Amino acid sequence: MDGKRVLLIVSGGIAAYKCPDLVRRLRERGTLVRCLLTQGGAEFVTALALQAVSEEKVYQNLFSLTDENEMGHIRLSRESDLILIAPATANIIAKMAHGQADDLATTAILASDKPVFIAPAMNHYMYNHPATQANLALLIARGVTVIGPEEGNMACREFGMGRMSEPLEIVAKLDSFFATNLPLKGKRALVTSGPTFEAIDPVRFIGNRSSGKQGHAIARALAALGCQTTLISGPTQQTDPIGVCVVHVESAREMLSACETALPADIAVCAAAVSDWRAKSEVGSKIKKAAGAAPPNLKLTDNPDILATLSQLVIKRPELVVGFAAETDDVISNATSKRKRKECDWIIANDVSPHTGTFNGDANKVHLITSGGVENWPKMSKIKVGEKLAERITAHFGDAS
Ligand code: CTP
What we know:
By secondary structure, the chain is an alpha/beta fold. It has helices at residues 19-28, 47-54, 65-70, 73-78, 90-97, 104-110, 124-128, 130-141, 167-179, 213-224, 252-262, 306-311, 331-342, 382-400; strands at 5-10, 32-37, 82-88, 116-120, 145-146, 150-153, 159-163, 188-193, 198-199, 205-206, 228-233, 245-248, 267-270, 277-279, 300-302, 320-327, 346-351, 363-364, 366-370, 373-376, 380-381. Strands 12-11-8-13-16-17-19-20 form an eight-stranded mixed beta sheet, sandwiched between helices. Strands 2-1-3-4-5 form a five-stranded parallel beta sheet, sandwiched between helices. The chain has a two-stranded antiparallel sheet with strand order 6-7. The structure holds cytidine-5'-triphosphate.
Protein backbone atom coordinates (compact mmCIF):
# COMPACT_ATOMS: atom_id res chain seq x y z
CA MET A 1 0.00 0.00 0.00
CA ASP A 2 3.06 2.19 -0.38
CA GLY A 3 2.12 5.66 -1.49
CA LYS A 4 -1.64 5.13 -1.30
CA ARG A 5 -3.80 7.86 0.22
CA VAL A 6 -6.73 6.87 2.40
CA LEU A 7 -9.36 9.29 3.66
CA LEU A 8 -10.53 7.76 6.95
CA ILE A 9 -13.93 9.00 8.11
CA VAL A 10 -14.50 8.29 11.78
CA SER A 11 -18.16 8.41 12.77
CA GLY A 12 -19.65 8.24 16.25
CA GLY A 13 -19.43 4.76 17.70
CA ILE A 14 -17.50 3.28 20.60
CA ALA A 15 -15.34 1.37 18.08
CA ALA A 16 -13.77 4.73 17.19
CA TYR A 17 -11.32 3.98 20.01
CA LYS A 18 -9.67 1.49 17.59
CA CYS A 19 -9.03 4.21 14.99
CA PRO A 20 -5.63 5.44 16.22
CA ASP A 21 -4.44 1.83 15.96
CA LEU A 22 -6.03 1.50 12.51
CA VAL A 23 -4.21 4.65 11.38
CA ARG A 24 -0.93 3.35 12.78
CA ARG A 25 -1.31 0.04 10.92
CA LEU A 26 -2.06 1.85 7.67
CA ARG A 27 0.91 4.17 8.15
CA GLU A 28 3.20 1.18 8.77
CA ARG A 29 2.35 0.07 5.24
CA GLY A 30 3.42 3.41 3.76
CA THR A 31 -0.12 4.75 3.44
CA LEU A 32 -0.88 8.44 3.84
CA VAL A 33 -3.95 8.72 6.06
CA ARG A 34 -6.08 11.84 6.33
CA CYS A 35 -8.71 11.65 9.04
CA LEU A 36 -12.11 13.28 8.99
CA LEU A 37 -13.88 13.19 12.32
CA THR A 38 -17.66 13.60 12.50
CA GLN A 39 -19.27 15.39 15.43
CA GLY A 40 -20.29 12.00 16.86
CA GLY A 41 -16.84 10.54 16.23
CA ALA A 42 -15.29 13.36 18.25
CA GLU A 43 -17.23 12.13 21.31
CA PHE A 44 -15.24 8.87 21.23
CA VAL A 45 -11.78 9.77 19.95
CA THR A 46 -9.95 13.07 19.90
CA ALA A 47 -8.69 14.91 16.85
CA LEU A 48 -5.37 15.27 18.65
CA ALA A 49 -4.91 11.48 18.93
CA LEU A 50 -5.67 11.01 15.23
CA GLN A 51 -3.42 13.89 14.27
CA ALA A 52 -0.56 12.49 16.33
CA VAL A 53 -0.70 9.05 14.69
CA SER A 54 -1.50 10.22 11.16
CA GLU A 55 0.92 13.19 11.27
CA GLU A 56 -1.71 15.01 9.21
CA LYS A 57 -4.26 17.68 9.99
CA VAL A 58 -7.62 16.24 11.08
CA TYR A 59 -10.68 17.68 9.33
CA GLN A 60 -13.90 18.22 11.25
CA ASN A 61 -16.12 21.05 10.18
CA LEU A 62 -17.83 21.70 6.85
CA PHE A 63 -18.05 25.42 7.46
CA SER A 64 -14.65 25.92 9.02
CA LEU A 65 -13.05 28.74 7.13
CA THR A 66 -9.57 27.37 7.67
CA ASP A 67 -10.46 23.79 6.70
CA GLU A 68 -12.23 24.93 3.53
CA ASN A 69 -9.34 27.24 2.78
CA GLU A 70 -6.64 24.64 3.23
CA MET A 71 -8.51 21.73 1.67
CA GLY A 72 -12.20 21.83 0.78
CA HIS A 73 -14.50 18.81 0.87
CA ILE A 74 -14.07 18.23 -2.85
CA ARG A 75 -10.28 18.11 -2.75
CA LEU A 76 -10.32 16.09 0.46
CA SER A 77 -12.14 13.23 -1.26
CA ARG A 78 -10.55 13.60 -4.69
CA GLU A 79 -7.00 13.64 -3.33
CA SER A 80 -7.46 10.16 -1.88
CA ASP A 81 -7.22 6.80 -3.53
CA LEU A 82 -9.93 5.37 -1.31
CA ILE A 83 -12.45 6.47 1.31
CA LEU A 84 -12.81 4.28 4.40
CA ILE A 85 -15.59 4.92 6.89
CA ALA A 86 -14.69 3.17 10.15
CA PRO A 87 -16.58 2.85 12.33
CA ALA A 88 -19.63 3.32 10.10
CA THR A 89 -22.67 3.87 12.29
CA ALA A 90 -26.26 3.04 11.30
CA ASN A 91 -26.78 6.79 10.97
CA ILE A 92 -23.96 7.50 8.50
CA ILE A 93 -24.91 4.37 6.51
CA ALA A 94 -28.49 5.69 6.27
CA LYS A 95 -27.28 9.13 5.22
CA MET A 96 -25.01 7.64 2.57
CA ALA A 97 -27.79 5.42 1.23
CA HIS A 98 -30.05 8.44 0.80
CA GLY A 99 -27.47 10.87 -0.54
CA GLN A 100 -27.55 13.28 2.38
CA ALA A 101 -24.78 15.82 2.69
CA ASP A 102 -25.31 17.72 5.92
CA ASP A 103 -21.79 17.65 7.32
CA LEU A 104 -18.20 17.48 6.07
CA ALA A 105 -18.10 13.64 6.10
CA THR A 106 -21.26 13.04 4.07
CA THR A 107 -20.42 15.93 1.74
CA ALA A 108 -16.94 14.53 1.07
CA ILE A 109 -18.43 11.07 0.39
CA LEU A 110 -21.04 12.46 -2.00
CA ALA A 111 -18.45 14.58 -3.82
CA SER A 112 -16.15 11.61 -4.38
CA ASP A 113 -15.43 9.45 -7.39
CA LYS A 114 -13.17 7.09 -5.40
CA PRO A 115 -13.80 3.55 -4.10
CA VAL A 116 -15.64 3.57 -0.78
CA PHE A 117 -15.19 0.97 2.00
CA ILE A 118 -17.24 0.88 5.19
CA ALA A 119 -16.66 -1.00 8.42
CA PRO A 120 -20.06 -1.01 10.18
CA ALA A 121 -20.19 -0.99 13.97
CA MET A 122 -23.41 -0.86 15.96
CA ASN A 123 -25.68 -2.74 18.31
CA HIS A 124 -26.83 -6.03 16.77
CA TYR A 125 -30.52 -5.01 16.79
CA MET A 126 -29.63 -1.86 14.86
CA TYR A 127 -27.52 -3.89 12.45
CA ASN A 128 -30.23 -6.49 11.83
CA HIS A 129 -33.01 -3.90 11.52
CA PRO A 130 -34.60 -4.07 8.06
CA ALA A 131 -33.90 -0.36 7.56
CA THR A 132 -30.15 -0.82 8.10
CA GLN A 133 -30.08 -3.98 6.01
CA ALA A 134 -31.91 -2.20 3.18
CA ASN A 135 -29.50 0.73 3.37
CA LEU A 136 -26.51 -1.62 3.26
CA ALA A 137 -27.99 -3.45 0.28
CA LEU A 138 -28.39 -0.12 -1.52
CA LEU A 139 -24.77 0.82 -0.84
CA ILE A 140 -23.46 -2.59 -1.94
CA ALA A 141 -25.48 -2.30 -5.16
CA ARG A 142 -23.73 1.04 -5.78
CA GLY A 143 -20.29 -0.52 -5.42
CA VAL A 144 -19.50 0.23 -1.76
CA THR A 145 -17.44 -2.56 -0.13
CA VAL A 146 -18.56 -3.58 3.34
CA ILE A 147 -15.95 -4.98 5.76
CA GLY A 148 -17.50 -6.95 8.62
CA PRO A 149 -19.06 -6.49 11.07
CA GLU A 150 -18.09 -9.38 13.34
CA GLU A 151 -20.04 -11.30 15.91
CA GLY A 152 -19.04 -10.92 19.53
CA ASN A 153 -19.56 -9.20 22.85
CA MET A 154 -20.57 -5.61 22.45
CA ALA A 155 -19.92 -2.50 24.52
CA CYS A 156 -23.64 -2.52 25.45
CA ARG A 157 -23.06 -5.92 27.15
CA GLU A 158 -25.06 -7.80 24.54
CA PHE A 159 -23.77 -10.47 22.19
CA GLY A 160 -24.36 -10.46 18.44
CA MET A 161 -23.39 -9.22 15.02
CA GLY A 162 -22.22 -5.62 15.01
CA ARG A 163 -18.63 -5.37 16.30
CA MET A 164 -16.33 -3.43 14.01
CA SER A 165 -13.70 -5.64 12.34
CA GLU A 166 -10.27 -5.45 13.92
CA PRO A 167 -7.83 -2.91 12.42
CA LEU A 168 -5.61 -5.67 10.98
CA GLU A 169 -8.62 -7.24 9.27
CA ILE A 170 -9.59 -3.89 7.72
CA VAL A 171 -6.01 -3.23 6.60
CA ALA A 172 -5.81 -6.71 4.99
CA LYS A 173 -8.97 -5.96 2.97
CA LEU A 174 -7.53 -2.66 1.71
CA ASP A 175 -4.21 -4.38 1.02
CA SER A 176 -5.78 -6.94 -1.27
CA PHE A 177 -7.90 -4.28 -2.97
CA PHE A 178 -4.81 -2.21 -3.79
CA ALA A 179 -2.75 -5.27 -4.77
CA THR A 180 -5.17 -6.08 -7.57
CA ASN A 181 -5.00 -2.49 -8.81
CA LEU A 182 -1.30 -2.24 -9.56
CA PRO A 183 -1.11 -2.33 -13.35
CA LEU A 184 2.43 -0.87 -13.42
CA LYS A 185 3.85 -3.44 -10.98
CA GLY A 186 7.22 -4.64 -12.30
CA LYS A 187 7.85 -1.42 -14.24
CA ARG A 188 10.49 1.15 -13.30
CA ALA A 189 10.19 4.89 -13.81
CA LEU A 190 12.34 7.93 -13.30
CA VAL A 191 10.76 11.37 -13.03
CA THR A 192 12.52 14.73 -12.92
CA SER A 193 10.85 17.59 -11.10
CA GLY A 194 11.34 21.16 -9.90
CA PRO A 195 13.89 23.71 -10.99
CA THR A 196 17.65 23.41 -11.08
CA PHE A 197 19.91 25.91 -9.36
CA GLU A 198 23.16 26.76 -11.11
CA ALA A 199 25.71 28.28 -8.80
CA ILE A 200 27.40 31.54 -9.73
CA ASP A 201 29.33 31.69 -6.48
CA PRO A 202 28.69 30.13 -3.03
CA VAL A 203 25.66 32.39 -2.38
CA ARG A 204 24.19 33.23 -5.78
CA PHE A 205 22.60 31.04 -8.39
CA ILE A 206 20.60 31.01 -11.62
CA GLY A 207 17.21 29.37 -11.04
CA ASN A 208 13.56 29.56 -12.04
CA ARG A 209 10.05 29.59 -10.53
CA SER A 210 9.16 25.91 -11.00
CA SER A 211 7.35 24.59 -7.88
CA GLY A 212 7.81 20.87 -8.62
CA LYS A 213 4.06 20.31 -8.06
CA GLN A 214 3.53 18.66 -11.46
CA GLY A 215 6.59 16.40 -11.42
CA HIS A 216 5.95 15.29 -7.84
CA ALA A 217 2.29 14.53 -8.68
CA ILE A 218 3.39 12.37 -11.62
CA ALA A 219 5.88 10.40 -9.50
CA ARG A 220 3.23 9.83 -6.84
CA ALA A 221 0.63 8.71 -9.39
CA LEU A 222 3.04 6.23 -11.01
CA ALA A 223 4.02 4.79 -7.63
CA ALA A 224 0.34 4.46 -6.71
CA LEU A 225 -0.09 2.16 -9.72
CA GLY A 226 2.73 -0.07 -8.49
CA CYS A 227 5.56 1.42 -10.55
CA GLN A 228 8.97 1.43 -8.86
CA THR A 229 9.59 5.16 -9.11
CA THR A 230 12.67 7.31 -8.61
CA LEU A 231 11.99 11.03 -8.35
CA ILE A 232 14.96 13.26 -9.10
CA SER A 233 14.06 16.60 -7.68
CA GLY A 234 15.67 20.01 -7.85
CA PRO A 235 15.20 22.36 -4.85
CA THR A 236 11.44 22.63 -4.08
CA GLN A 237 9.08 23.12 -1.14
CA GLN A 238 7.29 19.83 -1.94
CA THR A 239 7.33 16.98 0.56
CA ASP A 240 8.80 13.69 -0.63
CA PRO A 241 5.93 11.48 -1.87
CA ILE A 242 5.47 8.32 0.20
CA GLY A 243 6.52 5.14 -1.62
CA VAL A 244 8.84 6.96 -4.02
CA CYS A 245 12.64 6.89 -3.93
CA VAL A 246 13.60 10.58 -3.93
CA VAL A 247 17.04 11.87 -4.98
CA HIS A 248 17.61 15.54 -4.19
CA VAL A 249 19.87 17.47 -6.55
CA GLU A 250 20.71 21.11 -7.26
CA SER A 251 22.20 21.53 -10.70
CA ALA A 252 21.38 20.19 -14.17
CA ARG A 253 24.58 18.17 -14.24
CA GLU A 254 23.70 16.55 -10.90
CA MET A 255 20.19 15.85 -12.22
CA LEU A 256 21.54 14.16 -15.35
CA SER A 257 23.96 12.05 -13.37
CA ALA A 258 21.14 10.96 -10.96
CA CYS A 259 18.98 10.05 -13.99
CA GLU A 260 21.78 7.92 -15.40
CA THR A 261 22.16 6.18 -12.05
CA ALA A 262 18.41 5.45 -12.00
CA LEU A 263 18.65 3.54 -15.30
CA PRO A 264 17.57 1.04 -16.48
CA ALA A 265 14.00 2.27 -16.43
CA ASP A 266 10.97 1.53 -18.58
CA ILE A 267 9.60 5.04 -18.30
CA ALA A 268 11.25 8.45 -18.04
CA VAL A 269 9.17 11.57 -17.44
CA CYS A 270 11.14 14.82 -17.60
CA ALA A 271 8.98 17.39 -15.86
CA ALA A 272 11.83 19.46 -14.39
CA ALA A 273 12.38 23.03 -15.48
CA VAL A 274 16.08 22.53 -16.10
CA SER A 275 18.15 25.65 -16.36
CA ASP A 276 19.37 25.87 -19.96
CA TRP A 277 22.58 27.63 -18.97
CA ARG A 278 25.06 27.76 -16.12
CA ALA A 279 27.91 30.09 -15.28
CA LYS A 280 30.92 29.17 -17.37
CA SER A 281 33.16 29.21 -14.38
CA GLU A 282 31.75 28.87 -10.87
CA VAL A 283 33.64 31.09 -8.47
CA GLY A 284 34.70 29.39 -5.22
CA SER A 285 34.28 32.46 -3.03
CA LYS A 286 31.65 35.19 -2.97
CA ILE A 287 32.07 37.78 -5.72
CA LYS A 288 32.64 41.12 -3.98
CA LYS A 289 31.37 44.49 -5.13
CA ALA A 290 34.36 46.76 -5.62
CA ALA A 291 33.55 50.48 -5.16
CA GLY A 292 32.89 52.12 -8.53
CA ALA A 293 33.58 48.91 -10.47
CA ALA A 294 31.25 47.74 -13.26
CA PRO A 295 28.93 44.75 -12.53
CA PRO A 296 30.57 41.42 -13.25
CA ASN A 297 30.18 40.15 -16.79
CA LEU A 298 28.62 36.75 -16.30
CA LYS A 299 29.73 34.26 -18.96
CA LEU A 300 27.28 31.40 -19.52
CA THR A 301 27.63 27.98 -21.03
CA ASP A 302 25.05 25.36 -22.11
CA ASN A 303 23.77 22.76 -19.68
CA PRO A 304 23.24 19.19 -20.85
CA ASP A 305 19.75 18.53 -22.15
CA ILE A 306 18.53 15.68 -19.92
CA LEU A 307 15.42 14.86 -21.94
CA ALA A 308 17.33 14.73 -25.23
CA THR A 309 20.14 12.70 -23.64
CA LEU A 310 17.71 10.08 -22.29
CA SER A 311 15.72 10.01 -25.56
CA GLN A 312 18.83 9.52 -27.67
CA LEU A 313 20.48 6.81 -25.58
CA VAL A 314 21.46 3.81 -27.65
CA ILE A 315 21.85 1.45 -24.71
CA LYS A 316 19.39 1.57 -21.81
CA ARG A 317 16.96 3.98 -23.51
CA PRO A 318 13.71 3.86 -21.51
CA GLU A 319 10.94 2.39 -23.63
CA LEU A 320 8.76 5.45 -23.10
CA VAL A 321 10.32 8.90 -22.74
CA VAL A 322 7.94 11.75 -21.94
CA GLY A 323 8.94 15.39 -21.98
CA PHE A 324 7.22 18.64 -21.14
CA ALA A 325 7.15 21.73 -23.30
CA ALA A 326 6.68 24.95 -21.40
CA GLU A 327 5.59 27.47 -24.01
CA THR A 328 4.14 30.95 -24.10
CA ASP A 329 3.44 31.23 -27.86
CA ASP A 330 2.33 28.78 -30.58
CA VAL A 331 2.08 26.14 -27.86
CA ILE A 332 1.18 23.10 -30.02
CA SER A 333 3.50 23.79 -32.95
CA ASN A 334 6.48 24.65 -30.73
CA ALA A 335 5.88 21.55 -28.61
CA THR A 336 5.50 19.33 -31.69
CA SER A 337 8.85 20.45 -33.05
CA LYS A 338 10.40 20.10 -29.58
CA ARG A 339 9.24 16.44 -29.48
CA LYS A 340 10.91 15.77 -32.83
CA ARG A 341 14.08 17.70 -32.00
CA LYS A 342 14.63 15.98 -28.66
CA GLU A 343 13.41 12.58 -29.96
CA CYS A 344 11.15 11.83 -27.01
CA ASP A 345 8.05 9.66 -27.53
CA TRP A 346 5.45 11.93 -25.98
CA ILE A 347 5.51 15.58 -25.06
CA ILE A 348 3.10 17.39 -22.79
CA ALA A 349 2.63 20.94 -23.93
CA ASN A 350 1.54 23.54 -21.45
CA ASP A 351 1.00 27.25 -21.74
CA VAL A 352 3.07 28.92 -19.05
CA SER A 353 2.16 32.51 -19.95
CA PRO A 354 1.77 34.52 -16.71
CA HIS A 355 -2.04 34.89 -17.15
CA THR A 356 -2.52 31.08 -17.02
CA GLY A 357 -1.12 30.84 -13.46
CA THR A 358 0.49 27.49 -14.37
CA PHE A 359 3.86 28.23 -12.75
CA ASN A 360 3.39 27.65 -9.02
CA GLY A 361 -0.38 27.17 -9.45
CA ASP A 362 -2.36 24.02 -8.58
CA ALA A 363 -4.03 23.59 -11.96
CA ASN A 364 -2.74 22.83 -15.41
CA LYS A 365 -4.20 22.74 -18.90
CA VAL A 366 -2.12 20.51 -21.12
CA HIS A 367 -2.02 18.85 -24.52
CA LEU A 368 -0.52 15.39 -24.91
CA ILE A 369 1.37 15.13 -28.20
CA THR A 370 2.30 11.67 -29.44
CA SER A 371 3.22 10.27 -32.86
CA GLY A 372 -0.53 9.65 -33.23
CA GLY A 373 -1.62 13.27 -32.81
CA VAL A 374 -2.69 15.78 -30.18
CA GLU A 375 -5.00 15.13 -27.22
CA ASN A 376 -6.38 18.28 -25.62
CA TRP A 377 -6.97 17.64 -21.92
CA PRO A 378 -9.37 19.91 -20.02
CA LYS A 379 -8.03 22.16 -17.28
CA MET A 380 -7.58 20.07 -14.13
CA SER A 381 -5.49 19.94 -10.98
CA LYS A 382 -1.83 19.00 -11.37
CA ILE A 383 -2.62 15.96 -9.23
CA LYS A 384 -5.27 14.89 -11.74
CA VAL A 385 -2.87 15.52 -14.66
CA GLY A 386 -0.42 13.19 -12.89
CA GLU A 387 -3.10 10.52 -12.46
CA LYS A 388 -4.30 10.85 -16.05
CA LEU A 389 -0.77 10.60 -17.37
CA ALA A 390 -0.14 7.50 -15.23
CA GLU A 391 -3.34 6.00 -16.69
CA ARG A 392 -2.20 6.82 -20.24
CA ILE A 393 1.18 5.23 -19.53
CA THR A 394 -0.61 2.15 -18.16
CA ALA A 395 -2.72 1.96 -21.33
CA HIS A 396 0.44 2.32 -23.43
CA PHE A 397 2.09 -0.64 -21.74
CA GLY A 398 -1.20 -2.57 -21.86
CA ASP A 399 -1.40 -1.99 -25.62
CA ALA A 400 2.31 -2.70 -26.10
CA SER A 401 2.26 -6.03 -24.22
N1 CTP B 1 14.88 19.74 -20.46
C1 CTP B 1 15.93 18.96 -20.01
N2 CTP B 1 17.16 19.50 -19.90
C2 CTP B 1 17.39 20.78 -20.26
C3 CTP B 1 16.32 21.58 -20.71
C4 CTP B 1 15.08 21.03 -20.80
O1 CTP B 1 15.71 17.79 -19.68
N3 CTP B 1 18.61 21.27 -20.16
C5 CTP B 1 13.58 19.11 -20.63
C6 CTP B 1 12.49 19.60 -19.68
O2 CTP B 1 12.46 18.81 -18.51
C7 CTP B 1 11.25 19.39 -20.54
C8 CTP B 1 11.74 19.61 -21.95
O3 CTP B 1 13.13 19.41 -21.91
O4 CTP B 1 10.79 18.07 -20.44
C9 CTP B 1 11.46 20.93 -22.56
O5 CTP B 1 11.84 21.96 -21.68
P1 CTP B 1 11.54 23.46 -22.07
O6 CTP B 1 12.04 24.36 -21.00
O7 CTP B 1 10.12 23.61 -22.51
O8 CTP B 1 12.37 23.62 -23.40
P2 CTP B 1 13.85 23.95 -23.67
O9 CTP B 1 14.54 22.74 -24.17
O10 CTP B 1 14.49 24.58 -22.47
O11 CTP B 1 13.71 24.99 -24.86
P3 CTP B 1 13.14 26.50 -24.80
O12 CTP B 1 13.45 27.00 -23.43
O13 CTP B 1 13.91 27.16 -25.87
O14 CTP B 1 11.68 26.42 -25.11
